[in-house]
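User: For a benchmark we're assembling, each entry needs the component sequences followed by a predicted structure for the full assembly. Here are entry 17's components. Please fill in the structure.
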Amino acid sequence: MAQVSIRKVVKEYEGGVQAVKGIDLEIADHEFVVLVGPSGCGKSTTLRMIAGLEEISGGEIAIGGGVVNDIPPRDRDIAMVFQNYALYPHMTVYDNMAFGLMLRKFDKAEIRRRVENAARILDIGMLLDRKPKALSGGQRQRVAMGRAIVRDPKVFLFDEPLSNLDAKLRVQMRTEIKKVHQTVKTTTIYVTHDQIEAMTLADRVVVMNHGVIEQVGPPTELYHRPATKFVAGFIGSPAMNFIPARLEHGSGALNIHLPDNIVLPVPEERRSRYASYAGKEVLFGIRPEHLTEIRPNDHRPNLAPLHLTPEVVEPMGMETLVHIWLQGTEISARIDPAIPAEPGRPLALAADMGQMHLIDPQTDRMI
Amino acid sequence: MALDATTATAGPAMAPARPGLTLQRFARRRSTIAFLMALPLITVIAGLVAWPAGYAIYLSTLNRRMTSFIGLGNFEILLDSETFLMVIWQSCFFAITAVVLKALLGFWLAHQLHHIPTKGQRIWRGLLLLPWVVPPALSTLGWWWMFDPSYSSLNWILNAIGAPSVPWLGEPWWARISVIIVNVWAGTPFFMIMYLAALKSVPDQLYEAAAIDGATGWQGLRYVTLPMMRNIISITVLFSLIVTFANYDIVRVLTNGGPRDLTHVFASYAFQVGVLAGNIPRGAAVSLFMFPLLAIVAFFVLRGVNQRSKEMA
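Assistant: Structure for entry 17:
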């Protein structure tokens, strides 16, 4: 087990296209770090550079203190789980898992002990004699994880391991991965485009976009205190609402003027933070879960009532999502399923202004 | 009793509607349509493969003048003949050596080509395929000239670097080697192109997984590439073995079986005995000798291929 250091790492392809633009990241021993971002953000390239499957164009990567830039993958003491599992189809499950140990000339008894131990952790003991073709997607995924576990490497690398599974199995395997990490505690770097996977698995989430790191932090910090509009929009489902607004002083208060003449007061404790933006165009951000119905005996401070008319209503069972269009901007709100909501019928909603965000449209950074 | 009664009542009642319907249904069945569509091919195979094969078997049981049935007489005579035993040995030596060399060289070339970027690969692929696409009788004439005792260009090169001349076609062992060289030269591109396709079909992620598992280039080849290509290798080797065993043109043009009948293979010897010496039944018996040998090899190879396909695909 080891820490991983990524210093000013650049990946440039032929023709000068930069997939990764000088990122810095320190990953502690035993930590579970998730790289998340949309397609083409450079997360998989970063992982493949750590694995040694892609050359590093600039900067350096160190595993366990030693720089590994020029060390081939086999000598980096890492194990990787691929998106499409990459199991050897001509080998049995046992041989797939034992292959890495066999190449490293481990004693046969030790190989058996390790494979059986991993099989027990992953509950695949009864599959050891089967070939990958005879396994389901979830079982293949377990074998791919088993192949990584038996090696007892310094670092586990996961490259979108759940993308090929159906939704139900994905949730189940997510829990399995978390359980395995709690058991073996190996430093883990996990790549996904699914923010829910990132939030549920990570000790720290690294949000990437266009080859740079937007923000690094624990999941709750990213959710509550996003640094940029991109992070705010990427983390959380449904995504945060962004509404063009104007900040104005008025009758001793600071107000946010939204389309349709909606005016919302800025909470007192935030006034000084936002004061310099008074009279300027900003983006008002609020998550759908902070735009709810007015509840009886609601003690949340800073609630601002507003009446809006939903155009689409989506009952989800545990909640109802309503979609409202404010002069061309779509916003969503999460309301209690007991509230009768119908398209075209005005709803009395409340914005929890204590949870609001303001974004500078020039920089796309949070104010 | 109950069953009888049902049959008895159902039969006559349904009878008038049945014949037309049944015929229509039969014609519409997928298996019938499949059979009808395959019928032209079945006819061609029956006419060009099954009938000549059956006729060859029939011929091999006749006497030289084809007037009486002599059973396995021709085979008995052949197995008593020292020349024919030499032909069996030579055929096996020729076919196995040539196929092994073609497979090894073809794999090496495919591996080299696979690592050339796609843009440059095309020209090399085209050039390396040339020996395979030139009609063998013509290219063998070229080789014959290169091996010629008086004008051998190969000997000229050997002499130029100070080595002595080689009796390419005059000495039995050199003649055998020469025949193999030409066959390998002409047949390697087929292996190369098949192996190249097989190499391209191995997913890159398997190599990446192997590299992370700790495999060196050689171990990746041994534990990933070769096992993944086993089916293609088996089928290519089987196909080439059949074609090489039945090779006729190279031996005919290059050595004509000489010197002293020592480079004959089944096909050239069958032609010599059957057509040139006028003993068609014995010539048929010679050519039939290949069949059991190849059938056994084909059975085991195809069984292996089938098994692996089921396990892996």
